[in-house]
């Protein structure tokens, strides 16, 4: 810890430099303001023109050289997109004439939607059958043929004979029918959003014309676009709400509109600079960066409150400029270390393998450093522009009166109680830590877009209805690569048939599809045995494939490529929480190993990509926390110049994070793209109050030489600023609880709780540890 003084000649070099910077800004305040406006104006323009643009596609979350992402890209290049939108019509007797007419009308409209490559339904998906010795490949119902009783009866019979209808496009009870739309591969985000909006418009018109129809619209592209919309809406809504809340709290703290404008103006400058700077390099944001406003608020307010609080304590109504520079000198170093440690918490995200998390860490970290610079320069400038009668004087004397000193009395009483009950405080702390550790073991990871939506959201409800009644909508794709015509090998044909039969018995699997299903249908239509009992010869397989091609089957190329060197097995899983993905993939991989060995079988698709994102988030959480702890410890060591004191100061900062993560386990709140940020960000923020407390404690200890008295005086002098800062931070994060989807609300709630838990850590546990261990060297 370092000593400061009102006499510039006695200041240490760092304090002298910061004081000189503030003094220069005061001397040329108009020029300083013009410079700030010229730099911030482009950032405001960039923010205004790009704010709210969202993109949460896989291209955003995965690196281009990620092996799993490259395999997924290769799969899409070979077999096109596996992204499906699903429209379900629910109601009794879906195979009656009126219901069939409604389905046909809707299918015809969906086939006109641009960039929807194909529509699968009972009107477009073919049945393979033998009719009078001739192979016929046709759907159960035609889009053009009148729906006479004979046509309807024939179509029902075809559905009963077909293998890809009941449990795929039709519920077993015939009370729900599914229409699947496959998107073109590699659609840009705006085009995909337009496609989803077009289908929503079609469904709205359809329900208007047929008021009795119950429809559900869902699928992974729909969930992705819905999350984008919600993130955009939240980002636009949070911005004014967070600013309003912080302005009201500043007004409550400083009791004057003019004084409130000083830190609020600095806050606006930092927010616009951070967001605008991001948009200069990135055209869109994502669900992670959507939370940047309260995060930047958190990094901005601490320094402003502490410098203004110190200035009001010193100001006596005269010598305004020297008092202001003295406040800057006394708070420059602790505020610098708080900004550095906050930036360290954010910069720890640069170790993440997920680009949105890295970007947030980079720009929020730069924002925290910018906040420090603007606070040192522009708090004095803006204060100097206020009429002097707006600035209260003799604040130090007034807070000791009963009318103004309630909070100070509570803080001093809390310190006295802590000193009288040291054993009890330590026992409670240890008990809390044990309970938190048990909860930490229960934390799970979640990246399913379905789990991001609230339980009553119509897209999530539609997914539940479809998966409960008809089929799962999560794809796991197995790719089998070999030489040309290797797909015709009888051994491979038999292995694929056995693999599909085994996988279809596994939990949460609702069906599989491959080119073998087409071969099996032709095989049976010719009166032969099942493929598992009698696989066709290579010559028979070639003949069947040729028959399917000449008969006009349009589905086969989706499951085997043109030279029959690469085949695809598509497994449908019920979309659910990430834990079920992990279990389902493990079983599928075990079956792959059993039937294909080392023959080049690879697994990809949407579900494996979600699983990979699970792993990336877990590594990001672990790595960023370890890096943040290490960096914060080093900065505390640099501040205190004592390893023991730095280690002691880490305890009240680790405890609130451990308690919050433990609560996640007890409350079943998962690690997701929002909550994965909480640990690193919280550590960088909560350590700020620890630094201010240590700085003032060391000054009081030098002055009085007694640890208990230093603790009481520190609680009186710096305690109100710590409480005020924490309240503003909690309020800013609690705004996120009003968010529209779970990652945002969870992050806001957990961050606010961490700020709350940090208060007793700094005001109760830290002084107790300092008194017990007496880590400060004798001065």
How would you portray this structure in words?
This protein is of the alpha+beta class. It folds into four domains: 9-79 and 235-398, Multidrug efflux transporter AcrB transmembrane domain (Multidrug efflux transporter AcrB transmembrane fold, Up-down Bundle); 81-218, Alpha-Beta Plaits (2-Layer Sandwich), CATH 3.30.70; 403-441 and 642-779, Multidrug efflux transporter AcrB transmembrane domain (Multidrug efflux transporter AcrB transmembrane fold), CATH 1.20.1640.10; 462-611, Alpha-Beta Plaits. It is built from 27 helices and ten strands. The protein has helices at residues 13-27, 29-50, 58-61, 67-79, 97-110, 149-161, 189-209, 220-254, 257-281, 292-314, 320-347, 355-385, 395-398, 406-420, 422-440, 449-452, 458-469, 490-503, 515-525, 538-550, 578-596, 606-640, 643-667, 678-704, 707-717, 719-734, 742-773, and strands spanning 84-90, 116-120, 127-131, 134-138, 176-183, 214-218, 474-481, 509-513, 566-573, 601-604. The strands form three sheets. Strands 2-5-1-6 form a four-stranded antiparallel sheet, sandwiched between helices. It has a four-stranded antiparallel sheet with strand order 8-9-7-10, sandwiched between helices. Helix 1 packs across helix 12. The longest helix has 35 residues, at 220-254. The protein is elongated, with a radius of gyration of 33 Å. The N and C termini lie close together (11 Å). 49% of the residues are buried.
